[in-house]
Write a structure and sequence with these properties.
The protein has one domain (2-120): Sirohaem synthase, central domain (Double Stranded RNA Binding Domain, 2-Layer Sandwich). It is built from 3 helices and 6 strands, in the order βααββββαβ. The protein has helices at residues 15-18, 20-35, 93-107, and strands spanning 2-11, 42-49, 52-59, 63-70, 74-83, 111-120. The protein has a 6-stranded antiparallel sheet, covered by helices on one side. Helix 2 runs antiparallel to helix 3 (93-107). The chain is globular and about 45 Å long. The two termini are 28 Å apart. GO terms for molecular function: spermine synthase activity.
């Protein structure tokens, strides 16, 4: 049993985030793509400030998704959910790659990157700090 954290990053033209209409379009586009992968998706909170945004989405199984847009043209998507040992993951590796591809295409992203589910808070620590 652990919290699974999936990280996705996208580079877009900065005006897609600093222009209010385009920023809303980015948020709506991301939510519509995510809804095809994460069951029960609901928008809970939106905060826009100085060319950036923060969106909190929730979904089934206590899933929290945060979308962040930075005025420099970086968009991040963090998906977190609790998973018992016997439960199936919400997104398998192949699904994460497909989600990344669909989001990148919808956003017109110049560059994208995804990190498969990291298990946090498990009985055995899998990640060690490096410096």
């Amino acid at each position: 049993m652990a919290v699974n954290t999936i990280l996705l990053d996208f580079s877009v033209t900065s005006t897609r985030l600093t222009n209010a209409e385009e920023s809303k379009e980015v948020q709506d586009d991301m939510e519509s793509v995510l809804a095809n992968f994460v069951p029960g998706l609901k928008r809970q909170l939106v905060h826009n400030c100085a060319g950036s945004f923060f969106v909190l989405l929730t979904a089934d199984r206590g899933t929290h998704i945060t979308l962040r847009g930075f005025p420099q043209g970086l968009v991040t998507c963090n998906i977190e959910y609790y998973k018992e040992e016997e439960e199936k993951p919400i997104l398998l590796f192949e699904s994460i790659r497909k989600l990344e591809k669909e989001l990148a295409q919808k956003l017109g992203s110049k560059r994208s990157h995804s990190v498969p589910a990291m298990k946090r808070g498990d009985r055995i620590d899998r990640y060690f700090p490096t410096a």
